[in-house]
């Protein structure tokens, strides 16, 4: 899903018109949805607060970083029913844990062979699969049960700060 598609879909889901974004005209939002214009970085929080949709957050992150981060799963082979997402998430986490348990952290990078590095890379791809699955799980839960993903993220960040895992 592109950022443009995510904005259009989340705006439609919420019943928000294109002229309801402070700082943007209807024409500007339409141009963003058609891929003719980018969201100004300083305006991203306006879209985040107004739309509060997992697809928009994930795709905005990918856009602003040049492609880093999990994607919102929206392909023809994806079932976003909450129970399907839960089961897929559990499967992906089990696979990632299995890979983590098999890959030693004690081996120095300088002594790994190319085959070791390739195996480690595949292990990291599996871990990324788990991250994508967790993002889908959190996103679907928020959508289905009416939680704000933005509030959830802010609350989690506050928890990290309180534990001194991040610097404020």
From TrEMBL:
* InterPro entries (alphabetical): Cro/C1-type_HTH, Lambda_DNA-bd_dom_sf
> Known CDD domains for this protein?
HTH_XRE (cd00093)
Q: Which domain of life is it from?
A: Bacteria
Its recorded name reads HTH cro/C1-type domain-containing protein
The protein's organism comes out as: Alicyclobacillus fodiniaquatilis
